[in-house]
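WARN no homologs supplied; continuing
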Amino acid sequence: MGEIIDSKAQQHRRRSIRLKRYDYSQLGAYFVTVCTYLRSRLLGDVLEGAMWLNKSGHIVEACWNDLPDHYAHVQLDAFVIMPNHVHGVIVLTHDEGTDRVNVGAGFKPAPTGPQGTAKRHGLPEIVRAFKTFSSRRIDEWRRMPGAPVWQRNYYEHVVRGEDELNGIRESVHSNPARWLEDRYHPLRREQSG
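OK structure emitted
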């Protein structure tokens, strides 16, 4: 006899898009993309190839820049806010946060400290905190407590080498100039759908 599956429970089960068995607290660089809820143009607009942040965009920028204040092992690299998403590179370092780590295949497991030391947070926790901090501040400013700001998940890519990191940096910095071709541009999505 076959197993009865609750279709309602099945619909709400999240499928992870993270790499299986990969330790996202490892030292290295991670390229992340976080999209706004329903990809709404919440963060500003691109005019003549330059991004102009609105109040929500400035809140997001401040929350991103605050991450190293909350996580000693985080360094920030290339970052851009677009109307309906952000791209950024987060580098996980030793807890002191001063040593630049090599990106790529030379990843080593995160150092473990003596018992009683603070837990070393991985990429999922750091991105979750960024989304939570920025959502609360935006909702407070909009006077819309609990209104969704971000999509449920995020995209991540483990940066595999210095050449790849330099290419990502170039892509991030040139993103506003290429907004009309951006995969997240609303008109492009309408044409492809």
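Confidence is low (pLDDT under 50) at residues 1-14, 104-117.
OK
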